[in-house]
Write a structure and sequence with these properties.
With 167 residues, the chain is of the alpha+beta class. The chain has a domain of 54 residues. The chain is 45% helix and 12% strand. A hairpin with an 8-residue loop joins strand 6 and strand 7. The protein is elongated and about 85 Å long. The model has no long low-confidence stretch (mean pLDDT 87).
């Protein structure tokens, strides 16, 4: 099951291959994200709505039902959301709002990483959230200047003062 709304978790256990078929995630990772009660409530409202919509097509929800689906250009309903669909939606938004920067779904991962780092998250925590096995990969996602804080200089000054006071 991808959603555990009672305990407030999203389980990521599937991905799509290049042919848009469901498959296990890279390296068969099973990632469990804790979500807020508010998000769990919104997802429950969505699942209830989705259930009513699918019921019109005699599709019964079960534990394997994907959270987000769409009707593709062939008229096939309840299909997994694919990057092309999301890109088309983002392009439509851009067309109606030319002041916005052009983006793509994967860019949201970079945005998350950068904002999390700016908010004080450690690179280790961000790496876990992005399910990276190596923090070097995560560093590519974080858009931040190389800021050198004063901690090393302060420690040097303290040690220098200790030496001066000792003599």
């Amino acid at each position: 099951m991808d959603l555990d709304l009672v305990h407030h978790f999203i389980n990521v256990i599937h991905s799509l291959d290049r042919d848009e078929n469901l498959q296990s995630t890279k390296e068969n990772k099973k990632t469990r994200f804790q979500i807020t009660p508010e998000l769990a409530q919104k997802l429950q409202i969505w699942k209830d709505y989705q259930n009513r919509e699918l019921d019109q097509f005699d599709i019964e929800q079960n534990d394997d039902q994907l959270v987000f689906t769409f009707t593709n250009s062939k008229g096939e309903i309840n299909q997994p959301v694919i990057p092309e669909y999301l890109n088309n939606r983002l392009n439509t938004i851009k067309k109606h709002h030319p002041e916005l920067a052009k983006t793509h779904p994967h860019a949201l991962r970079h945005t998350f990483a950068t904002l999390a780092k700016e908010g004080g998250a450690t690179m280790e925590d961000i790496s876990k959230a992005l399910t990276h096995s190596d923090e070097k990969t995560t560093r590519l996602y974080v858009d931040e200047p190389n800021v050198v804080d004063l901690s090393a200089q302060k420690k040097f000054a303290i040690r220098l003062d200790q030496e001066r006071n000792a003599n």
